[in-house]
Amino acid sequence: MPDPRAHRIDVGPFQLEPDADSSRWRAVASDGESVPSAGWSDWVALAQRVLQIDALWREREARGDAWDQGHAASGALDAENPYR
Fold it and tell me: Could you tell me where the beta strands, DSSP code E, fall in the chain?
């Protein structure tokens, strides 16, 4: 599964997009030209969305780790982890 933290985060008046060349993010206005600006509720919505994405990723990683541990205990060599 691709890392959901690498997807664009859309908050309405602006989006945060991952920069493919680095581990940084860039803010992009909805119209693609102006400098992003937002009210307090937009920043709160952004923070909530970031936390949701991070929680989703952590849950998937935990499921994958648990699957790996259970599979290792079974001794079978040919199964594929559906969470990876």
Answer: 9-10, 14-18, 25-29
